[in-house]
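Quick start: read one record
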Amino acid sequence: MPRSLARRIVWSTFAVALLAVSARVSAQTSGEPIATALTAAASSAQASDPPATLTFANRAIVVLRATIALRPPAVRASTAADSIGRLLEENPDAPVTSQRYADGIVFSVGGQPVFVIFAADADALAGETMDAKAESALANLTQAAREAAELRQPGRLARAAATAIGATILFVLAIWFLVRIDIKVASSLTDATERGLKRLPGGEVMIIARAPRLVHWLLTATGVLFGLFLTYAWLTFVLRQFPYTRPWGESLRSGLLSTLGAAAARMLSHLPDLLMILGIVLVTRLAIRIVNGAFASVEKGNVSLPGVYPETVQPTRRLVVLLLWLFALIVSYEYIPGSNTDAFKGISVFVGLVVSLGSSGIMNQMMSGMMVTYSRALRVGDFVRIGDAEGTVTHLGTLSTKIRNPRNEEITIPNAVVASSPAVNFSRHAETDGVYTPTEVGIGYDTPWRQVQALLLLAAERTPSVRTHPKPFVLQTSLGDFYVHYTLLVCVENPNRRMAALNVLHANIQDAFNEFGVQIMSPNYEADPEGRKVVPPAKWHAAPARPEPLPVGTHTEVEAELKAPI
C-alpha cells in the first residue's frame, strides 16, 4: 500500500474519532480540535459515490454528495438519521443548531453533533454553495424536529384528524354539487346551442356533425377538470394536517402554485392578443347587426337591393353573416395563443384533411341548395312535384328540401336530387295567370265530341273549387284506334288542395255523363255492346252509399276542406 494512501486513511480515521470525542466536550472547550478534525476529514472528501438524501420524519433535510473517510453519502445519511432520531427521542425539545468552521458546518441536536456539510457536498455545477445548503438544511432539520415532537402529541393529532374529516365532507358535497350543476348546465347549453345553430347559415351541417354534442363533451371535460382541481386541493390540505404526510402536501401545493403561476404568467403574456381578438369579435358583431338591419328593411320592402328578392333575403343574410365570421377568424388567427406552434399547425392540417375528405358530399348538397335557393324555383308553401314526390314545400334547408304530401307524409329530398330533377311548381302563377290541372277521359267515336266537351265543362262548372277565370277548356289530345282522348283543363282555387279538387271534379264528371246517358268507356272492342254502359240515376246511391239531400254536384265535406285555409 502506498504511504500517502495509508497516511490519508489514518488521518481520516483519526478525524472521525476526534469529531465524535469533541461532541462531548463542554461549551467552554476551544473549537480547535473540531476544526482540525474537519480539516482532516475534508482532505479525504471524494465525489465518486452516488449522492444520498438525509431524511428524517419523512422530510428531506439535505443531499450529501461527498464520501468522507471511506464513508459514502448513503452511510453518512443513514448514520445521521439514526443519531437525530435517538437524540430527539431522549429530548423532544432539544434545540437544533449549526456551527460554521473553515472546512465544514457542523449540525447539532441538543449540543450533540449529528452530521457535517463539507464544501464537496455542494453541487458546484448547479451554482450551489455550502452556506446556502447549510441554511436550507438547518431550516429543514428544525421543521423535522418540530414535526417529530408533534407526532408524540395525541391532542394535536386528534385535531388534525377532525379537520381532515371536515374537509373530506365538504369535498364530497362540492363534488356532488358540481356533478349536478354540470349535468344541468350541459343539457341546457346543448339545447341552446342546437337552437342557435338552426338560425345560423350552415347550421344544419354543424348539427349533423354533432356540434351540440361536442359542446356537451366540452362542458363535461371542464367539470372533470374542475373536479380534479378540487381533489388536488383537498388532498393537499388533508396531507398537510399530519406531521408525517406534511412534506407530501407541501410538495403538492408548491407544484400547484408553480403550475398556476406559470399559467398566469403565460395568460398575461397573451393578454394583448386576447384583447385584439375581443376587439375583432366586437367589430364583427357590430357589422352583423348592421347587415341584419339592412336585410330586415329589404324583407319589409322599405329598401331594395339589386339581385336580392324576398325569397332570397334570409339565405343571403346568412351567407353574408357567415362570410363576416370567416373574415374575422382569418384576421384573428395570428392572435390566437399557440397558433404559430408546430402542434397547432399540425392539428390544423389534420382537421383540414379530414374535412376535405369527408365533406365532399356535404359540399355538393350545400352548393345544390344554394342553386335551388337562388334560382327561386321553390318557396316555402309552394305545391310542387319533384320526381315522383308531390306536396307542399315546408322547408328549404342547406342540405335538403322537405315537402308534405296530401297524405300528410313528410318527404326529405337531398338538394342534389332537387337540383338535378325537374321540379313542377303548381303555386307560382296560381294567383295571377292560373295553373291548369288536367284530367282525361276516353269516349268512343259514336258519341258526339261536342256533347263530350259540354259534359266536361258542365262538370267543371259544378265543381266549386274550379275557377271561372281563366275558363276551363277541353282538348282532344289524341284520336285513338277505338276511342278519343279528351283532356279537361281547369284552374283550381287552391293548388295545395289539388288532389281534393280533382276528387270532386271526377265525381261530377261521372254524375254528368250518367245523367245524360253517355258511357265513359275506352273499348278495344270486337263488337258493340247491346246497351250503353252507364249508371242510371236511380242507382247512383246504391248500397252502401247514402242519398244526399243536396243539389247534384255538391260534396260538402270535400268542399269544406277545399275552402279551408292552408
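Confidence is low (pLDDT under 50) at residues 1-31, 550-558.
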